[in-house]
Each structure stands twice: as structure tokens, then as C-alpha cells.
Amino acid sequence: MTRIIAGQARGRTIIVPEEGTRPTSDRAREGLFSSLAVRWGFEGSRVLDLFAGSGALGLEAASRGAAEVHLVDNSAQAIKNITHNAGVVGHPKVHIHQLQASTYLAQAPREHFDMVLADPPYDFADVDELLVAITPVLADDAIVVIERHIDSPEPAWPAEYDPTGQKLKKRTYGIARMDMAIFEREVHD
């Protein structure tokens, strides 16, 4: 059973696809969102959840006060579950997109998102290309979180991320590793 951990929808149960996804555990979401809340907060933020699966990451952000959340997944079953879960959370500005992440990013609004949460399959080989594709949709000082298997290679962050070289601390939860970076457009314009 998966639940929303905090915020206006706290404790509400959401469904996860029976197969084809690897939902982020409640423990991992709680740790990640506690870290993000302390450093950035969610109130008024515009959040993009790529490879959304059940939508748990984006819907957690919505419950915690995000102004707008976009959930992207290419699986019809995942979209069905996300649609149900969005109804459970009841946030008026949740947008659901049944598309490949790369297709969505190519048409997404530029310089728009304050936070991107990406949880691609562990065997997804194009993480570095994904980070490049995410870059145009980020607002200045946006946070990007990529969930990977603990043994996966570290992502090659583009130059606009962590330009001072002060990488954010990685978080690990069981076999999951959360790599995080801050995007700073103005430093490189």
C-alpha cells in the first residue's frame, strides 16, 4: 500500500501499477521530500514528474503545496493509475501527459519548472541525454532529482548544474540512490 506522506492529502492511499514500474518506496519519498522541504519547500512551485509510474512523487509535491504538477509517463496502465491517484489527491493543477519523456520535454514550456523529479527504469541508459533534454524547461535555481540504482554510474551533469562544483548530497534508500543538482541559468548566459 502506498500513501501520500504529508500535506493536504496526507494519509490518502494511492494505487501503483501491478507490473512494469518500480515505485519509489514510502521511506525513500519521505526522506527525499523532507530534504527538499527543508532546503526549498514546495509552496507555489511548478513540478515536473518524469517516468511518473503511479504519480507518487509529483502528487506528494502537490499535496505539499506545489502550484502546478505535470506527470509524464508513456504507459497506458500507468496513466490510468495516475488519473485515479490525481483524483484521490484532489489538486486542481495536476496535468497528466501520456508521452515519452523525450517527446514531452521537446514540447514543454521553456524556463518553466522549479523542480524536476525523474525516476526512469534502472536499465534506462540515456540518463545523461535526459539531463541535457531537461535543461531548457528549467527555471533558474531549479532542483533536479534523478532516482537511480545504487550501483548505476553517476550522471554527467551539464555545465549549468552546480556550476560552483558544490554538488548536493546524494541520498540512498535501500537500492535507490537520489542524485540531485541545482540549475543556474544566469551564471552561464
UniProtKB/TrEMBL annotation:
Record keyword Glycosyltransferase present: no
Domain of life: Bacteria
Gene Ontology biological-process entries: methylation
Pfam hit, one: Cons_hypoth95
Database matches in InterPro entries: DNA_methylase_N6_adenine_CS (IPR002052), RNA_MeTrfase_RsmD (IPR004398), SAM-dependent_MTases_sf (IPR029063)
Enzyme Commission designation: 2.1.1.-
GO molecular function: methyltransferase activity
Keywords tagged on the record: Methyltransferase, Transferase
Keyword Transferase in annotation: yes
Gene3D superfamilies: Vaccinia Virus protein VP39
Protein known as: RNA methyltransferase, RsmD family
